[in-house]
Amino acid sequence: MSDASELRNKEEETVSSEPEGQSEDSSEEESAEDTEMDLLRSLFSTGLGLGSAEKVLDDLTLEGVARYINSGKCKNILCMVGAGISTSAGIPDFRSPGTGLYANLQKYNLPYPEAIFQIDYFKKHPEPFFALARELYPGQFKPTICHYFIKMMKDKGLLKRCYTQNIDTLERAAGLDGNDLIEAHGTFHTSHCVSSFCRSEYTLGWMKEKIFSDEIPKCDKCSSLVKPDIVFFGESLPARVFSTVKKDFPRCDLLIIMGTSLQVQPFASLISRVSKGCPRLLINMEKAGEADPMLGFLGFGGGMDFDSEKAYRDVAHISSCDEGCLALADLLGWKAELEELVKTEHARIDSQDEKEKEKSGESKGAAAEASPAPAAPPSKAEE
């Protein structure tokens, strides 16, 4: 979503500028600094060929991954996910030619596609972002097979955490809670006033009402803009990302990467934070993470080896995320359970939506009966 210099700037920014509610105290800033030092140590170790790695998988295939999970030795699974896990729900990814989000923003008259997610542009021209938010707003889409597969890993006690680049909140809709998730690029779940002197917090329901009333959300206290807590270009990642990475990745037994091109930093560089012996499974429409060796050495993605003679831990399963999760669930003996979970949850969501529509219709009907009908609708000029 940005060029290389912007991506590096995003990683270098300090966590002290985080919105209230995302940055907790100075100890988290120290954790972020410690994490950066750990990353440097890891990178130098990798670059100099130090340390040794034990081969864990008996075969670099999906079958080998399944056998490892079923062995009982795999107890802490981390997931890293991107927009590709939500495309089957009807949410476009960013970069697919013709169908991606960036390819279809002409109607917003932007100077360039990424401007819609740049904080300086947003503060001057918030209308395009909120028009897009109305189209893609959380609650209009159902979680996918992939989302429920992640939830099933949680229910079976295997999921340590899910790190997501997505802002669609479908992980939460599938049943993951705040402790299960690291929303690395923020979330629509909460919003804050952009004024540094105010920073008032607002709920998902408050923001939804404003957006679907065609209003630009303004703070009730100071009248400044209110922005969902998603990370725009020009903003820091949530401090919790850095502190939790330091705890989670060294303990990871299996890293599952799904639906991401591994192009956005610093998220992409997280693949290098697991131990040298930790298997890494990529489920994606194409291989990712095989970047220039120098970029890998500097911590900007890369480092995955699927095909060379030295490959010993990385597995690429080329398919849609849903198909890959179904195939893995089948090998694990979970497929029927996963399909039943998806069917049951989608039926529940449909039923809930119907009830909300009926309730909304009843409310509108009651309001119409209580109020006399206007003599004529107002003209545009009167509005």
Quick overview of this protein structure:
The chain has 383 residues and is of the alpha/beta class.
Can you offer a commentary on this structure?
The protein is an alpha/beta fold. It has two domains: 55-88 and 143-185 and 240-353, TPP-binding domain (Rossmann fold, 3-Layer(aba) Sandwich); 92-140 and 186-230, 2-Layer Sandwich (SIR2/SIRT2 'Small Domain'). It has twelve helices and nine strands. It has helices at residues 4-12, 26-47, 62-70, 119-124, 127-136, 145-155, 170-173, 204-211, 239-248, 293-298, 321-332, 335-370; strands at 77-81, 159-164, 181-183, 186-193, 201-203, 226-230, 254-258, 280-284, 314-318. Strands 3-2-1-7-8-9 form a six-stranded parallel beta sheet, with helices on both faces. A three-stranded antiparallel beta sheet has the order 5-4-6. Helix 6 packs across helix 12 (335-370) and helix 11 packs across helix 12 (335-370). It is globular and about 60 Å long. Mean pLDDT is 78; it is low at 1-29, 42-51 and 370-383. Zn(2+) binds at residues 193, 198, 219, 222.
